[in-house]
Write a structure and sequence with these properties.
Rossmann fold; 6-stranded mixed beta sheet; globular; single chain; alpha/beta
Length: 381
Amino acid sequence: MKKTLTTTVPAALIALGLAGAASAEIKIGASVSATGPAAFLGDPEAKTLEMLVEETNAKGGINGEQIALVLYDDGGDANKARTFATRLIEDDEVQAIIGGTTTGTSMSILSVAEDAEIPFISLAGAIDIIQPVKPFTFKTPHTDRMACQKIFEDMQKSGIQKIGMISGTDGFGASMQAQCKDVVGEYGIEIAADETYDPKDADMTAQLTKIRNTAGVQAVLNPGFGQGPSIVTRNYRQLGIELPLYQSHGVASDGFIELAGKAAAEGVRLPGTALLVADLLAEDDPQKPVVTAYKAAFEGKFKEPVGTFGGYAHDGFALLVDAVTRAGSAEPAAIRDALEQTSGLAGTTGIYTMSPEDHLGLDLSAFRMLEVKDGSWSIVE
């Protein structure tokens, strides 16, 4: 799927992907997983980018220049993402790229973007995307390493010293599993059981039974995204396991609760963003105006709940608009330099301050520890 979006093209042409963007002076490319196994992430990302381009152009664009969004759906396929990244740069001649719904597609896109020296803002979680720092690659979600640290902080406060871990073998799950193993010792916590599952598995009771039967386990952590964590959660309750269950920020959405079932998800904890608890934020929270405005706009336009993943796209677009505005130029090198100088930009995911050594710009304070209570998200005090 390809869409080219401007404010002057009839909607029918936009839908068919037949509209050109020659009249626009700023071209932004995007490759997201709007369909396929990661569609629950990529679909709201695509919708968010389209909505924000329309809103920005209606207000006069960036520095008086209109934006054209050239959007491809890679279906979660890393090879397609690489092909689309090449097409965006060579054929569509975009000045920056937002996308990479998953770790795999992000790694494909960044390899092309780095070679072409085109700024790329990833929407995926793995730390490998930005560490080591790559000159033209940035990202908006917290890293998987940060998620591990936030979870282990919470476990430590609860006196948990021994855990079981069950991880997806997808790119995100495997990366977070490795990052959790790397930092767990800093919190005085031992991983006593370590199981994995394929993202396509429909039942994880065997692995969970092994964890349940491991002596001394006080809690269970599930690094993963997609449907796997919802299945783990349902199986967990079916087995009658009463230990605390922690999930990753990879499933921080209302969709996770729906897939797992409200009863099964009750009590699950995970590190999430302010967007999931917008109505619960203090009035003086610097993120509140941003998250409430995005939530109102998205839900008003699409008649569906706003989610963390669309928020990642929101922040990617906000970072790009801010960079172009400050640079006074849409030249790729100028955008890259300005992104690296981002300071105090409030997004839905956190407040971004980047540097040559930090192409994420968030710390652990940007995470909120959340818990499912009565079928919805609450803030753990």
